Amino acid sequence: MNHFDFLGKTKYFLPVSILLIIVSIVILIPQVRGLNPGIDFTGGTEFTVVLAAPVDTATLRRALGEIPAGETDLSTSVIQEIAGGGKKVITTQLHVEKHRGIIDRIEAVLHAQFPVTEISRRSIGEQVSRELIRRGWQAILLAIMVILVYVSWRFRLRYAVGAVAAVLHDVIIALGLFALFRVEVNLATIAAFLTIVGYSLNDTIVIFDRIRENTKLSRKSSPFNTINLSVSQSLSRTLNTSITTLIPVIILFIFGGVVLRGFSLALLIGVVIGTYSSMYIANPILYTWTVKAEQAKQRG
After folding, report:
1. Residues 75 and 152 in one domain
2. Taking the chain, what is the end-to-end CA distance rounded to the nearest angstrom?
3. Per-residue pLDDT tens for 264-291?
4. Crossing angle, helix 10-28 and helix 261-280, to 10 degrees?
């Protein structure tokens, strides 16, 4: 059966991946650029606005964006609608101690431009934010560890290492792009990164399962040919799944608004890179390990 030489192309793609990972790690260093944490991770001020009549969220966001607030873009504030639009919860990155003047200006603008009957506010402390940061990254690291254990049990350790390498590859590059373009990282983004982990693993496991089946069916075939054949057999399913997933993600990215921009961008990057890494990161690692194991067995 004719199939595409995926492993043969690794010599072109692997250096690109290594370069992207190195650049991403450098960009992620706070002294170089670092991530752009949202209010979930930095603390801020939350306004609860009670309205006499429903107000469109887009109109409210435009009004906030016109308020001068220094380096803070108030149009990116998180706005939640409660009670059919009769109440809005506006979450900003403004700290009461540092931005009291801007906070007072926001309340004045809301009273002047909208049918506001009551405004209350509360401060989101930095201690709570630090706890959210810790728990968010713990969730991602725990997911990766569980993947390592599960795939080792379901397949073998060499498969697990390949799968985890692909997941780390995807997450690091996605974080690097977020840092490069200063996209806000919040709790929704962490959820998206966990989704990336699952999506990348799903593609990789499908290919690994086919590799294991083909290895049993044709034990005389070389690991090189078996892996290439398995990827080729899974390619149609992989591409169909990726394209089907990309359609709603792209629509969400375009029409989801500024609040969902980071979430949808993370998914968009994850689908593209996850599809790539399942073919050009996980499989070369599995192939190299398998060849070295066979050579060691022959020498023994």
Report:
1. no
2. 34
3. 999 999 899 999 999 999 999 999 999 9
4. 140
pLDDT by residue (tens digit) across 91-134? 888 887 788 889 899 999 999 999 989 998 888 766 666 777 78
- Domain hosting 88: range is 44-124
Helix (DSSP H) and strand (DSSP E) numbers for the chain: 10, 6
Residue type, 30: P
Q: Cβ of 232: how many Cβ atoms within 10 Å?
A: 16
pTM over 0.85: no
DSSP 11-35: HHHHHHHHHHHHHHHHHHSTTT---
**What CATH number does residue 113 fall under?**
3.30.70.260
Cα distance between residue 78 and residue 64, in whole Å: 11
Considering only the C-alpha atoms of the chain, give the largest distance between any 2 of them, rounded to a whole number of Å: 83
Half-sphere exposure at residue 264, Cβ-oriented, CA atoms within 13 angstroms: 16
